[in-house]
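(Fold this chain)
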Amino acid sequence: MRSGRFLLIAGVATARAVVALILALLFWAAAPVVLGWTPTTVMTASMTPAIEVGDVVVARPVPHEDLVPGRVVLADDPDRADRLRLHRITELRADGRLVTKGDANPSADSSPLDPDAVKGVGMLRVPWVGLPVVWLHAGAVVPQALFVAVFAACAVVALRRGDDEDPDADDPPPHGEAQPPATRRAARGAVPL
């Protein structure tokens, strides 16, 4: 029965690794908020392949003079008041406004950004951790339910104590030998209540 024990230990270890990975990704996506940085979940593919849908990008505030071409900026979108724009600066206009473009887009954004609208420069990309937010926004119930079920199952298995059980508990005692009592009560012959 050693293979069953090995599978138990491997399953518990794998579940713990999955839970630890998800929690670590969530930590790296949320912890920079303490520093005044702004996390955002990427909802479109306009910045692929550098930044994918479902990634969380954390932007750090910078002075206006650090807003130079090539930098990825997070800003209030001038075309949609309730949204943010995460695109790369391609040009600085003479009036100080920033021309931006998504890496995957064929042309620059129609509305340039005012430097005051910039929340920060992208400093950290945490892959995949925002996918549940994307699924929720899109109304994709099946992947969201699967994610919750898998995470819950991993959490339950991760809490299992699979490495402290007696390694010989599944093996029968050698022929002719009595198995030693498991507790002092059993050794005294006490009957459990």
Remarks:
- The first helix runs from residue 2 to 30.
- Residues 36-140 form a domain with the Umud Fragment, subunit A fold (CATH 2.10.109.10).
